[in-house]
Design a protein that fits this description.
alpha+beta; 181 residues; 8 strands; five-stranded antiparallel sheet; 4 helices
């Protein structure tokens, strides 16, 4: 059972459902949950693990667009010998994005910024978040290489970089998104 805390919720179940519906939260997912508890103008929702997929419509649209584009690239798509992107690599990147969106929602109570999802000539997938305050690039490698690379930089010059396993929630990357996104 996962617990989501949403700010500024009203104090009755009827108003809570109305509040949730207005914000695009499907109250049908609440059928198997315990009743919500409102405390200090916050709604705490207890939901089954399968409701973890909390992605914004904009993120879903970007995932759909990128999936169609990236999985249909021919061999040598950049005319410099680029490899095609394997479906398993795509699925690994998509899982990472959905899990990260869910984690950001749980930590911050809002949607994750929508990244650019780009093919890389070596058969990997680049996920890039960029705004005036920061940039964060994550490179998801093909299945045979389990680790992914990341590099981030803020407008003040603070940098992070390293490797991580995309299947494991990485608190440093999540904090970077939450603090800077």
């Amino acid at each position: 059972m996962h617990q989501f805390e949403l700010p500024c919720a009203p104090h009755s179940e009827r108003l809570e459902r109305k509040w949730a519906k207005k914000r695009g939260i499907d109250t049908d997912d609440w059928l198997r949950r315990e009743e919500p508890i409102s405390l200090a103008r916050r709604l705490i929702i207890r939901a089954p693990k399968q409701t973890r997929n909390i992605a914004s419509a904009a993120l879903e649209a970007e995932i759909k667009r990128a999936r169609q584009e990236i999985l249909n690239l021919p061999n040598n798509w950049d005319e410099a010998g680029a490899s095609t992107i394997d479906r398993n690599t795509w699925e690994k990147a998509e899982r990472f994005l959905r899990n990260t969106a869910s984690d950001v929602f749980q930590q911050r109570g809002s949607q994750m910024p929508v990244p650019q999802i780009l093919p890389s000539p070596d058969g990997s997938i680049d996920i890039l978040w960029k705004n005036e305050r920061f940039k964060l690039l994550i490179n998801i490698f093909p299945q045979e290489k389990a680790e992914a690379d990341f590099y981030g930089k803020t407008s003040t010059g603070l940098e992070i970089k390293g490797k991580f396993f995309p299947e494991v929630h990485h608190k440093g990357i999540l904090s970077w998104l939450v603090d800077n996104g």
